[in-house]
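ESCALATION

Customer reports they have been waiting on this structure for their group meeting. Please prioritize. Original submission:
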Amino acid sequence: MKAIIVDDEPHVLAVARLLVDWEKYHIHQLFECMDATEALEIIEREQPAILLSDIRMPQMDGLTLIEKAREKNPDLKSILISAYSDFSYAQKAVGLGCVDYLLKPLTEEGLNDAVEKAVTQYNYEKNLRSESQSDKSHILFSRYLQEGRSNEYWHSLLTAVPFLADTELFHLGILFSQEEDTALEPVAEFLHQYLYRENIGIAALRSKNIIVVLLPAYDYSPVDRVQQLILRLEEKFSVSLPSAFSSICVLPKDWDDAYISTKRMVLLSCGTDTLEQIHQYILEHYAEDLSLDYLAEHFGLSLSYLSRSFKKRYHNGLINFLTEIRINKAIVLMKDHSSSIAEIALQVGIPDPKYFSRVFRRVTGCSPAEYRKESGDSL
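Update from on-call: job pushed to the front of the queue and completed.
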């Protein structure tokens, strides 16, 4: 943090410099000047957090200096110093949002109290701004991931997160939960807040079991640091989060390749191969709206690779396997006399009864109604 002292009396500058415990308030750069015009140049160039200024100075008084300084640095916190107990000065100081109004001769206690108050206000407002921007960037990144990765959202994201706009080179990371009932939203929000606050990245949910992390690739790599953070997250939220990070890639151009390859690394690290996971996923989620496109995206594989590899492994096409699972489950459900054909179709993931009947006939050689009749069941 930076601060500046402005007074036309050298001994006042020296007193302020020596009496305040600047290190205690994390102020590591202190500027001093005897001229308000020079002070304005420093304020514009260095953007200090704290300004201590005398009121009566030649060329430009302290009140005018504060007014002009706030135009160049709206977040600046000001403390006025005066040899006169003048109520009108105090009123104007309040009107300009000054943190404190100190009378000469300056005291150690008065100076430190005023600086502490100014630093506290500055940090509080900075945190509010940071949280607001962090929330905005988290929402934008979530939309980018979940609503088609449009160029509009990407450019909005770069605008909201300036440290992302400095480079096209990134590491893309994926955190994966194998536990379907684990709520990852709090984990994603916590991770994003930390990354954003440290200016090293952003994070958001891609789906209910995947968190995506974006880390700018500068001269140093933040990947090791983030992986250590993930270990702490697992402990804090009592969740297992296998993760992987891509090598440096150009975004958004290389997004698809980076995402698919990184997700494949995560799945391999989980201890079971991807095809077995897909096979098990279909057995558990056949009643949901599954498709080849969805499964390829969900497990980070290309359509052609998934289709070809699944058939080679299980000697059956993926969609055909899904259909057989659904129809076999429907046959079991038909034993329930209280369920209609339409209700059974819905329960096995085929909401259109007419389409269900066509598929059922293709697999079994008869319609659902005929099957029930032949098996002794009634509608």
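Sent to customer with the following note: The domain at 274-374 is CATH 1.10.10.60 (Arc Repressor Mutant, subunit A).
Escalation resolved.
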